[in-house]
């Protein structure tokens, strides 16, 4: 599924569940003999030892008292008998009592030297050597998706489906699942941004594309501070831009737009778009509906009043909208620690905590059994809450890990929508990126295998949702896969940005859900993809956030 689901459209049917995969332990602690070993009678040797000692002492006494030996000889015989008796006690093992043994395996990898095995792929070399012809030679994507709004498509499989094999890994077997390191927002600081962009794979052209995209977004902000997918409602546009969207949710569109400004380091206190960002944050805070469980940002509007001033509301968004809007509030707070948005950010986080299903996931409505893509947005928002030192209960992270366990296949290398699957690339990349946030180390075998499969692909010219997640995940793991992917993705976006008229600075791709999210949706995902070089500090290089949730 995709970030923005309209309430009035049908939802995708979940995939058929595959055979559950139970994790196997890495070691076993045994006590006593194997359970199927027959009981063996044991010989009582203690009586024999006591008899031997008695004989020795009796013999020495006879010789001594009979006067047939000298005193020194008797003393030597007695002390020698004692020493011999003690040696028997030491070297004759007892025949009863439990025995313990430990069985297991240990595997050691050097994360710093790890690189993915992509020997079958052509090494891209330096990014500047990649031609534009390569960047735009992109494969067509199948359309096996559903009718749901902006839902990621069910693309062709990584491999032919095979019978699930029992997993030999569990999240407990690889260390603390809550070890949250890296991923900070320090790179967005204006004094850091350009150097990180050019040093991590960006170019002057990609940075220029980001700035043009932000200018287009600013020109399409509504007077109330929010953004709409329907560009006809933007006063400065009034329909001059083609390919307008039809989604009603304004918290989702506003959250996506704000994330682009924040990703470039522009906040309500710094940069050329201070008023734009401030107005957007105020809009989200104003749209929040306060409940006993936190602040609800699913986007509601009052239709009328019935009876004795009882309001009737129409909900135009869902937990997609809430997760995206919460992510924007949390990132703004993590970057500025502005007390004016602290309460709104914490209340939005509280609502995510409340909305989690008992089995760990999130879906359209609070406490529904989860799906992978809605859950991915909530996990990302909660990670940003940690960056801002907001409160997130520890058990939320454990339950989220349990959810991704329930939809993983191939030992955690692939993920389905609501059940295990090897057939869905979009849910797989969301699952892998969420696992990284939840603490999987870079050298964890299922992560390596899953990212190898992602890295073998080229960017898709008509699927920005997949491109957005794949770019983030590949950037954080690095290696040959990232070097191959980055120049193609970067140059494709630079080349496809609109340059004429009111559309200049925006993007639009003719993909399965672009008629619903429209130009605003395509533009925000494109900008966020080009900001990958500094938006979050690398998870697996230097730890910027060292405490666990």
The profile of the biggest β sheet is: 2 strands, antiparallel
How many individual helices? 17
Strand order of the largest sheet: 1-2
Mind telling me the CATH class? Mainly Alpha
Question: How confident overall, as mean pLDDT?
Answer: 75
In whole angstroms, the N-to-C terminal distance is 27 Å
Describe the structure.
Mean pLDDT is 75; it is low at 4-70, 88-177, 303-307 and 542-549. A hairpin with a 3-residue loop joins strand 5 (300-306) and strand 6 (310-315). The strands form four sheets. The protein has a two-stranded antiparallel sheet. The protein has a two-stranded antiparallel sheet with strand order 3-4. The chain has one domain (131-535): Glycosyltransferase (Alpha/alpha barrel), CATH 1.50.10. The longest helix has 21 residues, at 71-91. It contains 17 helices and eight strands. By secondary structure, it is mostly helical. Helix 12 packs across helix 13, helix 12 (425-437) packs parallel to helix 14 and helix 13 (445-455) runs parallel beside helix 15.
Summary?
The chain has helices spanning 46-65, 71-91, 132-136, 190-199, 204-218, 250-263, 274-287, 319-336, 339-355, 372-387, 394-407, 425-437, 445-455, 464-477, 479-496, 514-530, 532-535; strands at 27-31, 100-104, 289-291, 294-296, 300-306, 310-315, 408-409, 414-415.
């Amino acid at each position: 599924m995709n970030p923005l689901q309209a309430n009035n459209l049908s939802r995708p049917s979940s995939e058929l569940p595959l055979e559950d995969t139970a994790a196997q332990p890495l070691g076993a602690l045994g006590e006593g003999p194997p359970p199927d070993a027959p009981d063996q009678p044991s010989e009582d040797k203690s009586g024999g030892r006591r008899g031997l000692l008695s004989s020795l002492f009796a013999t020495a006494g006879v010789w001594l008292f009979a006067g047939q030996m000298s005193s020194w000889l008797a003393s030597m015989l007695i002390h020698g008998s004692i020493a011999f008796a003690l040696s028997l006690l030491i070297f004759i093992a007892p025949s009863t009592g439990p025995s313990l043994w430990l069985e297991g395996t240990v595997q050691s990898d050097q994360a710093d030297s790890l690189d993915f095995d992509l020997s079958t792929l052509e090494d891209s070399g330096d990014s500047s050597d990649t031609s534009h012809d390569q960047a735009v030679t992109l494969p067509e994507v199948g359309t096996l998706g559903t009718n749901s709004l902006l839902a990621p498509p069910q693309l062709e499989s990584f491999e032919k489906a095979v019978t699930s094999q029992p997993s030999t890994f569990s999240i407990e077997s690889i260390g603390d699942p809550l070890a949250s390191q890296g991923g900070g927002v320090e790179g967005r600081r204006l004094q850091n941004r350009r150097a990180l962009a050019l040093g991590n794979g960006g170019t002057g052209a990609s940075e220029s594309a980001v700035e043009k995209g932000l200018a287009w977004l600013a020109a399409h902000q509504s007077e109330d501070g929010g953004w709409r997918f329907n560009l006809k409602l933007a006063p400065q546009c009034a329909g001059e831009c083609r390919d307008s969207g039809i989604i009603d949710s304004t918290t989702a569109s506003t959250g996506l737009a704000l994330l682009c400004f924040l990703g470039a380091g522009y906040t309500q206190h710094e940069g050329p778009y201070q008023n734009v960002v401030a107005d957007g944050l105020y809009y989200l805070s104003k749209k929040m509906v306060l409940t006993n469980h936190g602040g609800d940002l699913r986007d509601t509007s009052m239709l009328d009043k019935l009876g004795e001033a009882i309001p009737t509301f129409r909900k135009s968004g869902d937990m997609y909208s809430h997760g995206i809007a919460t992510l924007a509030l949390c990132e703004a707070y993590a970057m500025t620690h502005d007390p004016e948005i602290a309460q709104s950010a914490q209340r939005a986080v509280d609502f995510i905590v409340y909305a989690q299903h008992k089995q760990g996931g999130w879906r359209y409505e609070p406490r529904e059994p989860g799906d992978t893509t809605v859950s991915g947005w909530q996990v990302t928002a909660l990670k940003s809450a940690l960056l801002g030192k907001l409160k997130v209960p520890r058990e939320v992270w454990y339950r989220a890990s349990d959810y991704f366990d329930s939809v993983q296949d191939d030992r955690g290398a692939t993920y389905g929508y609501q059940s295990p699957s090897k057939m869905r690339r979009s849910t797989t990349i969301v699952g892998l990126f969420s696992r990284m946030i939840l603490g999987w180390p870079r050298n964890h075998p299922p992560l390596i295998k899953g990212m190898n499969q992602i890295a073998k692909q080229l960017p898709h010219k008509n699927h920005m949702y997949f491109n957005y997640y794949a770019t983030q995940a590949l950037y954080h793991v690095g290696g040959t896969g990232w070097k191959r992917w980055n120049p193609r993705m970067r140059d494709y976006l630079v080349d496809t940005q609109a340059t004429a008229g009111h559309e200049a600075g925006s993007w639009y791709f003719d993909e399965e859900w672009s008629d619903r999210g429209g130009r605003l949706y395509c533009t925000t995902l494109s900008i966020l993809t080009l900001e990958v070089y500094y938006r979050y500090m690398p998870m697996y290089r230097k730890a910027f956030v060292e405490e666990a949730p």
